[in-house]
Amino acid sequence: MPAPRRLIQGNEAIAEGAITAGARFFAGYPITPSTEIAETLAARLPAVGGTYVQMEDEIASIAAVIGASLAGNKALTATSGPGFSLMQEMIGFATMTQVPCVIVDVMRGGPSTGLPTEPAQGDVMQARWGTHGEHSIIALVPSSVHECYTLTVEAFNLSEQFRTPVIILSDALVGHMREAVELPTGSELRIAQRGDLDIDPDDYDTVQSTIDNILPRPALGSPFRVHVTGLVYNRLSGSPETASPRAAGDLGAYLREKIYHHHDAIVRVEDFMMEGAEVALFAYGSVARAARAVVRWARQEGLPVGLVRPITLWPFPTAAVDHMAEQVRTVIVPEMNVKQIAWEVQAAVAGRAKVVDFGRIDGKLITPAQIKDLIKKEFHYHRFS
Amino acid sequence: MTRHATAEIREHLRSAKTLWCPGCTNGIVTRAMIDAYLSLGLDPEKVTVVAGIGCAGRITAYLNYSTVHTAHGRALAVATGAKLADPELIVSVVMGDGDCAAIGGNHLIHAARRNIDMTALVFNNSIYGMTGGQAGPTTHEGDRSKTSPFGNPEPAFDICELAWAAGATYVARGIPYAYLKLVRLIAGGIAHKGFSLVEAVSDCPTYYGRMNTKLDAAGMLAAQKEAAVAVERYDPERDGPITGTYPVGLLHHVERARFTDIYDQVRARAGYKPDGDGAAESAP
Fold it and tell me: Which of A18, A80, A197, A294 is 20 to 30 Å from the Cα of A351, by its Cα?
């Protein structure tokens, strides 16, 4: 039976996606514009036997999520810029200790308290590098209500598969926008389960994950008596090993490679009207909505413009940018920050095409008209429309 | 409460080699924890120890249970998530005094308020030991440390009073000098249904002792006997920081509904039926 059509908000869709993905634990702290995720889950989680707990701050929220995941639950938290900043240390802990969990950042204008109710994309680099030390991370950027739902399921799948925190970078527009959607049920989607480690507990320190075979960690309270530490540890025993450069190097390389080696399996990019395009728009999240409208307009005007929309922002879609750089002469990167992703595009394009950045940081959306102006300039196009 | 044979204790340790300094009493408190678990006859597979960062936090690498060595100050918050996700876990949270009362102070008062069934064990040596002897929130006024070379200008927190005021339902303080009593207080906290906090006074001869009491490890341990006054005999009019004394024993004990009990009612009101599928699989 097809799912009924519903008019819901991006934030609500994320909460529903979490339930569908099998999340049974949410810890959070109210913050605009993410609060509806907490509100929805406060009502939905107890009904499915899960737990909603409101913590004393965002540091405690991500910490409790990590604890719940270690105890065997799929768990998430949701926040916005100021809270996301507070979470950074424990996000690093989760990458180091390889704890699957999902962190939703509904981006708003910053820095500091900034523009609490207005959208921005100023946290994209914080998502990548906000925690200290060398690490890898996965971040997804939804640009519609439907995608808020499906990418939340995907975020849980990736977090379980790669034993890593996954960040969903939504924004105040996508979070608060309402769209009529038909949401697929759990049986229509792939739902990754954590799985059991099928070995004798006595043999626990003889098995080691490889880049291609990432083993699940047994939960706390299991016969395996696991040790979890944020110190550099021996990958086989889990014991701290801070005096061994070799252990540190091995762990660091593994934590990095277990994500980067799987670039093709993780990274999703949508090409829109890229056939024959000479100019590409590279846009993500809510900005991609304006960009898509502009591409339709450009094609009607006979201008060869397409859109490359990263759905995965981290790891950065270098293969897709590579491909794009071979095809087009110009890449235009409109984003609600100043050059955060444009620099990344420029590095990947490596001189093969011109990269034009366009940033807006006043809390207002980048409009189709603004993107059109950039395209007109690119084609020396003077017709009014 | 009995003292178990060393061979039996060793089965609960991954390693008996620690990085704690000679004369540090953390080892005695560690043994007291194991004696408490053994006395209560707990399934070691269900015991989960969550700790923060500092000398005390290193206990997680030594104890042979499920152990989590979290970030500085965050142990109680991680433990909150673990206990709520799996209420079957027997959760002990080991923190140093700075870990618990400074960087983790906010988590302490809210964990106490929620009354989640877990036991906070604070190894209180009145100084930051791991970083080399700096003053913290439990360093007494006037004490010398690396960051209070002319005497600490700040008054100290009484962690037990703090936890009590915040809503902890079992609060106790013990000293390694009175070992079996310490074991009994820890065991009482673990058996208690609700949030319990046991402060174990711990000696740091390397930093605190060297800069203040000028006593060696044995001298510091002996001094615990002089400073600790059984709560039954403790008279706030006569005893206290002025005389360098503090009350030990079971300081506070009440029964109050636990978060997990109340949350089961929340689930029921939301329509969840633990044995049927209830609302569990309803489509979004």
Answer: A294
